[in-house]
Amino acid sequence: MGKSAQVVDLSSVKKYRGKGKIVIGEGNCHIGNLAPVSSADDSLGIYLMAGRFVVKSDAETATIHASLIATTCFSDNSQSSSSAEGGIEFAGKNVNILGNLIVDNLFEMRDMPDGGHLKIVHDPALYFPEYPVRVSVGQTRSLLAVDYNAQ
């Protein structure tokens, strides 16, 4: 994770309203059951630039309605240990995500219960939004998609 042991604890937040992004430069994010007030109008993205999501929930299964991103960029482009990579720690919980999940390492299902699950259901609004303009630029792929209904 780096020098900082900071934690952003969102585990007590159960509902959110509006369209928002939370960007955390360094540190982990505790997250539990999280849902929009209005699934038609509200959306949330949480981006950890150097950290991991840690599931904290009183329930056996945590249900999260959000886009979760945990990636780490190493300035020297070095190979690091998997403990330094962005990911998700299950803390003995099953997880359902309505949205998407982007992490550096999903091979290590840290602390997933025996017989447990990670279920990701992609929100159709991610692919068919009201104003469908998407841009993705990367080293291996690039995409520009614009699809307006002309009248």
In a nutshell, what does this entry contain?
This protein has 1 helix and 13 strands; from the N terminus they run E-E-E-E-E-E-E-E-E-E-E-H-E-E.
User: With helices defined by DSSP (H or I, 4 residues minimum), what is the helix count?
Assistant: 1
Total beta-strand segments: 13
Distance between the termini: 51 Å
Order of helices and strands: EEEEEEEEEEEHEE
Strand line-up in the sheet with most strands: 3-6-8-10-11
> What is the overall pLDDT average?
82
Which oligomeric form is depicted?
A: single chain
Taking all Cα atoms into account, the compactness measure Rg is 16 Å
Helix proportion of residues, in percent? Answer: under 10%
**Net shape:** globular
Structural class: mainly beta
Runs with pLDDT <50, length 5+?
none
How much strand? 35-45%
Number of domains: 1
Largest sheet, in brief, is: 5 strands, parallel
Helix-strand blueprint:
Elements: E1 7-9, E2 15-16, E3 19-24, E4 28-31, E5 35-36, E6 43-48, E7 52-55, E8 61-70, E9 87-89, E10 94-103, E11 118-121, H1 124-127, E12 133-137, E13 142-146
Parallel strand pairs: 1-4, 2-5, 3-6, 4-7, 6-8, 7-9, 8-10, 10-11
Antiparallel strand pairs: 12-13
